[in-house]
Every structure is written in structure tokens, then in C-alpha cells.
Amino acid sequence: MAWIYYFILLIVLVFGLALNLLSLPGLWLMVGGYALYAWLTGWDVYVGWPSLTTMLILALLAEAAEFFAGAAGSRAAGARKRGMIGAVVGAFLGAIFLSIIPIIGVAQIIGACLGAFLGAAIAEFWDKDFAHSMRVGYGAAKGRFAGIVVKLAFGVMMLVVAIFAALPIAAARATPMPATLPPPSPPAATLPSTEPATTNATTQSI
Fold this sequence. Notes:
Low-confidence stretches: 170-177, 194-206
Largest sheet: none
Shape: elongated
Order of helices and strands: HHHHHHH
Structural class: mainly alpha
Number of strands: 0
Mean pLDDT: 81
């Protein structure tokens, strides 16, 4: 039964990794699926706190890296708060509706970057000139691309950790069978000697 749970976990992990291309919280789906696998197979039998903590830390680092990469790209181009919000919304919609290239993965990345460009540019063009809005849109697209690449890299690391740490044979390797020792032999009893004592007589002739 553990192997069935393991293969279901692999499907959830790959699906969660793919959700990141749509700017959805796929990494947290990976963490949740991993924790559920630990509960279904018995805590600390295959999965315990060390690997689960590693998954949590990687997910947090990925979210922080994506946020700062996107914000840095927009701010460097002079974006305001409305431009950053437009970039986030545009990236989400673009990954869904602007994925026109028939290559899974590449289409979502290009669509998200194009959506971030349009979202930030339209939000800034509301009360700014065309050149400023184009500059902010380009910065938002560049930041979104950097954030996607970094987040995917962390997601791949999480996938590798989960694949090896959750193997159902891990516990068998870690817990060797105890050696069977033979029972101790009873101490040998001390038996009295049954041999008659010999007496050497010395015959003296007078």
C-alpha cells in the first residue's frame, strides 16, 4: 500500500511544480501532499520532521525569491504600487490566456511575462506617459521571468528531496535486523575426583 501512496505523491509533486507556471501556490501543494503522505504511511516510518522541515524551508525561500525578484524588476523601472499590482494580476491572467505557443511550460512562462508587461504598463499608463508605462512593463516582465526561473529551481530541489526521502524502502535500510545471539552456556560443574589415591610404599630391607 505504501508504494501506491508513493506514486500518488509523485503525481501531486509534478502537478504542484507545474502550477507555479500559472503563478499559483504549487509549492505549497507539494508540501501538503508530502505531509499527507507522511501521515498515511505512519509518521517517521518513511517521512519525518527532517525532510518535511527541508521542504518547508525551500518553499519559503522560493516564495521570498520570487517576490523580491518581481518587485526589484518593477521598482528598478520606476513602478508604483498600482504598477506592481497590475504586474501580478497580469502575470496570472497571461499564464492562462496568453499561452499561445504550443509547448507546455514555455507557453506559460512567456504568457506570464507578457501578462506582467501588459498589466504593469496599463496600470502605469493611467496617469503617466507612454514611455514610462513601457519602461515599467519591461521591468515587470523581466522581474517576473527571473522570479519564475528561481521559483522553479527551488521546486525542482523540493521534488528531488521528496522523491528520495519518501521512498518506501528507506525505513528498511535505516533499521537493520538485530543479530540473534546464541544463549550462554551454563558453567561447567566441578566434579569430585573418583580416582583412588595412590600411595607409594617404600620397602626397606633390614
